[in-house]
Amino acid sequence: MSDRLTSRRLWAGVALVAAALTAVGGAAAGRTAACGTVTINEQAWAGSTANTYVAKYVLEHNLGCKVKITKTAEIPVFQAMADGKVDAILEDWQHTDQYAQYVTKQKSVVLVGPNGVTGIIGWFIPKYLLDQYPQFATSKGLKGKESVFKSAESGSQGMFLGGDPSYVQKDKYLIQGLGLNFKHVTVGAEPAQVARWTQLYKQHKPVLFYWYDPQYLNAQYQLVEVKLPKRFAGCKDDEKAGGDPKAYACAYPSYVLNKLFSKKFAESGSPAATFLKKWSWANADQNAVAKLIAGDHMNPDKAAEKWVKANPGKVKAWLP
Amino acid sequence: MSRSRVARLAAIVAVILASFFALKSRYPWPTWLEWNSLSPHLDTFQTWLLDQRNAEHPNVVFAAFNGLASFLDNLVAWLNDLLLWLTWVGTAVAGVLVVLRFGGPRAALLVLGGFASFAAMGLWEQSVQTLALMLAAVCLSLAVGVPLGVVAGRSDRFQRAITPVLDAMQIVPAFAYLMPVVILFSVGPGAAVVTTMIYAVPPAVRITALGIRGVPVNTVEAATAMGSTEVQLLTKVQLPLARRMLLLSVNQTILFALSMVVIAGLIGGQGLGDTVTSGLYSNPALALLAGVAIVIMAMVLDRATEAIADSTDPTRRHLTAELRRRLRLATLATGAAVALAVGLAHVLGAGRVYSRWTAQEWLLRYIQKGLDYVQDPSTFVFGITSPIGDFIVQYGLQPLRSYFVETPWPVSVAGVAAIAFVLSGRRPALIALAMLASIGVMGEWEPAMDTASQVLVATGMAVVLGIALGVWAAESELVARILRPLLDALQTLPQLVYIIPFIYLMPVSIVPGVIAAVLYATPVVIRLVAAGIRDVAPEAVEAAGAFGATRRQVLLKVKIPLARDAIMLGINQGIIMVLAVVVIGGLVGSGALGYDVAQGLQRNQFGQGVVASLAILALGIALDRVTQGNRRARREGMA
To answer: Domain A120-248 adopts which CATH fold?
Structure first.
């Protein structure tokens, strides 16, 4: 048999098989959701994973939507919403610059409103340290005792562990403005900072660090906040602005965490948009789910399912 | 290096040290010599760009960028959809059979292993997304990089012009240009491909150029004497003889591209990069697993392309008519088998994504056990590593840091320029001087000197280790074989995945960043040095042997001197690699410029990020000029 015949037969066989299988196979009709596909952006931290996956669970099981989860970084996600590539974000920590650009100026993103969670930022110490030095309850009590917190990298000064570069911070100026002898050590991103203070906590050593709520670790470690001076009018909060350190010498404000939609999604009238507009929960809820995900390493879908099944009343309040 | 040179260097360092101890901290960079409005100007530029982009009727330039972004988005989406449509069975079978046909059974087995591991780890969907993205990025990077490398290999002037651009592309941290990329290309796989290409094109260009230049001049002359045209010279002489270097450039492009997977995820790349990022915050074991998947993908892609290149090497096979017929049949048979497999998969209802039994939970549990051990400060390992870290920081890195930061600035600038002059000549010295001056003028003197102290330590270690291991790997096949997967892993495993657990063992700043830099930079140095030494003309080695040289003498007096270009490229790339991960250092406690760049992106302080990146770039250029030696003298055969 000549090889041309062999190859012709081979090709014919391939074509026949392909045709037969295409006819037999056929595509199963995809379940057309009542509300189409919703794209929600999940931020890096566990709290955001918590709220995104709970919303996803209810959207998929109660409203029949298809949910796509993206993980674009905090600042670029605004451009993604403006371009319609992301429909919603459920937790934003007051990026007022982006609001000015996208919500006010360009009107391509809609500020929907609070998601029910209040963010608080401050200086924290372990509870065992407060028991040992009760004066550390306020920042005034730290004065003169900074050497309690010294480490290999801070020399004779006390060490203050700074926060993740993406979080709003003013601790360098706060330390100066309050006249404290601390060395502000930038320990890097949150996982690195957590590594530093948890190791010190487990060794029962003194540690002072920038921290916040909602955060799942607050349920696992006993931390107390060091009271900073009360807020006064004109107190500044973002180091970007520079200036006199004394202008920063007050406590951080509390942050209303916001939900934002892309203009396209907000005006779509989709049941998903109505649901997400109503969606809101408390710090305790977010911390509970975040603990399941990050503390107990539960799969986020399963963690969301667990919470939803345990809180039918709260879920019902969100549904149309 | 001559004795007088060493003496002169020692004298310069002595002067700098003396002025440090005498005049410590009294001469910080003067504020009247700073141009602080660069940062606000850049912020205004970004706002302007944003306004332009989102305007009612955007400029036609944006239409061009949008077009490119859509093309790339669609390309990646199409690849992704194709891989999913084939179903998981079809994709695996297609990959294995195609590699089997073109690359041989060994590579096919590796591909099978790769797919099996993605399935077992429960990361199939993310792996396919990343695979689609990387295939697009690597192919485009090679399509752009190799031709440019060929031109650079044949034209000195072009190489001189393009080298600073390549340096910038590799050193300037992706964090700095992420926002402009997003503004121009929006968020999505397109932007991810562009960001990856910016980092992956330079190695393709550089190593291809090195390969073309490595073709012996005699051979090129002989070919020209026989009457070949330029094209014939290129395609029939230079490219085939540069084959080993071309393969190294493909290997490095793949590894560089895959090392960008996590950053690509930040702007819509999806896939394994996303798993790593959120894993770092909520599930470090899963982040490590995804990191391992990235490494496996890199190794499989690399081995597969190498096997394909080897089997299709025209010098190794003799294509008779009979063989050609058989190969054609084999191709047809492969196509048929793939079609059959895909068809069967569809019929039997195999899903688009593998989602059955996975070993993920079991794997995560074991990894978590390891992580729990690492995170426990009462273990005996912690008892050893923690004090070592404290010691290194307190008595090594902190003093070095203050030595760099607090030396009076005129002394530092003049000292570095003097060192550059002694080592490399007048022009490099002037460039180094200009670079340091610009760092001060931009207002980044203190953080730049802080970063410089760390970069110097990391580069020194990377170069020393790299040359030593590179020489060893060139001389010993066994060592090369053992090192290869380890080097692949170190180049592609996302650093944060292994450095964050390391911080638990050594909870001090600076050290983790330096270690991350050394582990990332050393593999490149090793590879280039080994390739250079292996490529030394065998005639020269034979001649030396004929004269009675021992193996050691051949190595030290023939191979290393003849491989000088590759070794210098290795040192240059080592410096660049260390600078490329300054931002990672900033994320794990190195502070200074790395932290400023990270904050620049994440707090939308574009100007700050760019200025800090420019300072990193200036440091890189200064360091490179200091260490490159006298290029011109070398070229003219005098040094």
So the answer is: D-Maltodextrin-Binding Protein; domain 2 (3.40.190)
